[in-house]
Amino acid sequence: QVQLIESGGGLVQAGDSLTLSCEVSKWMLTWDAMGWFRQAPGLDREFVGAIRLIGGSGDGTYYADSVKGRFTVSKDNAKKTVYLQMNNLKLDDTAVYYCAARRGSAYQYYAIRAYDYWGQGTQVTVSP
Predict the structure, then answer these.
(1) Residue 58 — very low, low, confident or very high, per pLDDT cuts 50/70/90?
(2) Whether the Cβ atoms of residue 64 and residue 35 lie closer than 8 Å to each other
(3) I want to staple 35 with a disulfide (CB 3.0 to 4.6 A). Which of 21, 50, 55, 72 is the partner?
(4) In DSSP terms, which residues pair with 74 in a beta bridge?
């Protein structure tokens, strides 16, 4: 059974940095990307960033406009872990953050429906 386990969430102040980790119990060779999403109270789950696992050109990362330049997605294949480094955190970044994995999809990386496996989420709270 595949499990995605997020960690690293917490309470930080605006302007601080935080790094989330997503450890995968079983790295599937059929996966083509992993993504990070977040959901704030009363709002829909939204795309944050993604990293391509196979194929393509460039560094294979994709970001929502709201986090571009502040957040970085990276991976460590040996540790079966994907990271979300968050810098210059803002109050609007407060949310539960989820990592997700996809087997390959016709949908874009930012689409929730493109992902097949999800973690349980980790809370990030940014205070003034």
Answers:
(1) low
(2) no
(3) 50
(4) 83
